[in-house]
Amino acid sequence: MPDRYFYPEILSSDDLKLLHETVGDLLKTERGGVSQYDPEAVAKIVLRLYRTGLTDRGKLMSLAMLMAEQAAVRKETV
Fold this sequence. Notes:
Blueprint: H1 13-28, H2 39-51, H3 57-77
């Protein structure tokens, strides 16, 4: 039995690959190749969602994008 079953909080290489690709894709979707989002903030959002159980890539991207947009709007109004 893999150690992953004994230590579920540890992310596997497949998990890290999915997270890396998701963050990269979210930052690339911006117009003109320039992201309005802080890459670290986007990474934190994606990781938080993934660790709560949202592992479907499409749903993860959709919700992370929505949360990043809300965070950017809040940051602009301050």
